[in-house]
Amino acid sequence: MGAGPAGLAAADAALAAGAEVTLIDTAEQPGGQYHRMLPEAYEAADPGALQHGYGSFDRRRRRVLGHPRCSWWAESAVWALERRDPDADGPPLVHVLSGTPRRRHVLEPDALVLAAGAHDRVLPFPGWDLPGVYTAGAAQALAKGERVVVGDRVVVAGTGPFLLPVATSLLEAGSRVLAVLEAGRPGALARGWLGRPWELAAQLGKSGELLSYTAALGRHRVPYQWGRAVVEARGDGRVEEIVSARVRADWSVVPGSERVTAVDAVCLGHGFTPQLELPVAAGCALRPAPGGAAGSPAEAFVAVDDDQRTSRPGVYAAGEITGIAGAPAARAEGAVAGWIAAGGDPGSRALVTPRRNRDRGRAFAARLALAHPIGRGWPGWLRPDTVICRCEETTYAAVCRSAADPTGTEPRVAKLATRAGLGPCQARMCGPTVAELRHQGGADRASEADGTDAAPSDADRLWPVGPHHRPVAEPIRLGELARPPEPPTTPGRSETPGRSETPGRSETPGRSETPGRSETPGRSETPGRSDSSKPPEQS
Predict the structure, then answer these.
(1) Cα–Cα–Cα angle for 228, 295, 360, nearest 5°?
(2) How many CB atoms lie within 10 A of CB 373?
(3) Which pLDDT band holds residue 493 (cuts at 50, 70, 90)?
(4) Closest CA to 4 of 473, 429, 520
(5) What pLDDT does residue 441 have?
(6) pTM above 0.85, yes or no
(7) What is the distance between the alpha carbons of residues 122 and 172, in angstroms, rounded to a whole number?
(8) For a Cys staple, 439 with which of 54, 297, 510, 516, CB 3.0–4.6 Å?
């Protein structure tokens, strides 16, 4: 599932191994967020603007989409994975919605590669629900994919290196970036990035990318400030100013350090949350993210072995659902997953470079987690009436009351009591936040919020992070569900094949039977392969 860096690399490797591949993505064009492309209407624009490594990506994109054994399903959504009978081997059935009007299809892959990616995590604060407050990823998507700026006076804030490309994209699209605020303090950054410095020699590509971003900020005289966070947004009908403050190592606010800045947009990113709905639906085992041992309810990732196999037979995973390590690591994981899923030799020389790059990416992910942890003191930013779940307008006080209620220890009961997570996003945005607030001992904060006095039980403290169990992963209309699924066309023979050098999309998606891979499940008819196959190209 998905045609981002991991999915596209997996499809490329699976094709090289001899498989027939179905590549599925919700977007009109492949590339994911990292290589988000302009719509075809923007023909005069430079497609590689605002992107690193566009040339190698474009070569791979053309090679994959132009391959006779690849069926490209654009603007298609995997809305469910259905496990087969317990006695049956192989990956789950893949339920897809595709076309206009949308039609239902059921694919039966021989192998399945999941590369669903991740989305932004944003910590709440008073006023974060005002218009003009954006996730960093949304702001970058508008700048890269539409050349639309979110505002003229913008502050970018949060934690992690992703803030730099977001600020750069905004500058190149025409915004004035007033500041980049990194909540992490220099000590944590030094521990993460300067320990065992010789290992950073393998990340020279990232160093060049970092230098290009810092040079762009320097040219536009954008200040980069450590140890400062946005703790409030204010405005009448939309954001007009933000309050930032210096924060300690645990992200608690230093009194008297508040500063007010006039803005018309603020872009926030506090790390990423992997999209685990489909891996969980497939029955894949999860592993705790780095930092879980510290007691905070850290996000989980899909557990994979050295060949990117999950705990489910015939199901592979690659990219940010296995760990947040950046696009190069995602490409390497995708290459390994696609090659093995297609029946390629695990000992092939073609996998030497992808495995090495994958392992370097995992080391980078460990540094990233150490350098940019989420401080445990951020709930101090909140007020009783601060909205935690924007879909259902659930407040901080309501979440605290639920944490203090001994009858609400079961997550589903707590969800019904507060309605947090019952809205359109189905807890994708608020789930980790609600879980963390409860985990940290919501009853103590409940007494501060509304005068109650009770202690959270062990069940409260162990409430799992993020309700990833969603049998229906994407919205589907009842009318679409009532109609029987249409049989897919012959592999690689869609009515209007989306396999041209300029990516198109099939009117009636084509389908293949052996795992190709994509951030939306790919598959192919026979996991064919030959030891002499062309190795997956790495870039």
Answers:
(1) 75
(2) 22
(3) very low
(4) 520
(5) 57
(6) no
(7) 24
(8) 297
